[in-house]
Amino acid sequence: MDSSLRSTEALKSRIDALQVTLTRRFETLVNLSAVQRNDRTVTAVTEYSMKAETAGLIRAAEDVQTLIRQLQEMWLFGRLNALEGKHEREEVDGTAREVAELGRKLTGAKSLEGEKAVKREGGSVDGDHDGEAIELELEA
User: Fold this and answer.
1) Which of 44, 80, 119, 130 is spaced 20 to 30 Å from 112 by Cα?
2) Positive or negative, the Cα torsion across 128, 130, 135, 137?
């Protein structure tokens, strides 16, 4: 892990630096495209400068992609503390508990429907059906 991503301030400064680099490179390209002289030397220097600035712009965009990837990994593995306040963290934890409880209720309801259907057909919920194949059609 890059040591420059250890704190919020370091992340913000890296994002700002990348933003400035992208903006500066793009502005330079726009300024180079407005050259008024048609001299061969000026054209050659402008072409070289545009190639260099384009390469720099591409590299800065790749750096942004790398930062995004690192932030995604940090978030996924829990090292990115996106919730600064205790209240926000408690609110998200409460919402997660509610979703988990609703999921349990939903899977429990489907499980109960399946058990009822098996019993209606004369089968066993435990799987004891004396080697008989039981086919069930559950109403959706």
Assistant:
1) 130
2) negative
The answer to whether the predicted template modeling score (pTM) of the entire model surpasses 0.90 is: no
Is 14 part of a structural domain of the chain? yes
**What is 26-59 written as a DSSP string?**
HHHHHHHHT-----HHHHHHHHHHHHHHHHHHHH
What does the radius of gyration of the chain's CA atoms come to, in whole angstroms? 31
* 138: pLDDT strictly greater than 50: no
Inside any domain, residue 131: no
* DSSP alpha helix (H) spans, the chain: 8-33, 40-76, 86-120
Who has greater pLDDT, 96 or 51?
A: 51
Structural domain of 45:
3-82
Q: Residue 56: what pLDDT? A: 96
- CB-based contacts of 38: which residues, under 8 Å, 6+ apart? none
In Å, what is the CA distance from 86 to each residue of 11, 34, 94? 21, 53, 12
If asked whether residues 117 and 64 sit together in one domain, one would say: no
pLDDT of residue 134: 45
pLDDT at 101 over 50: yes
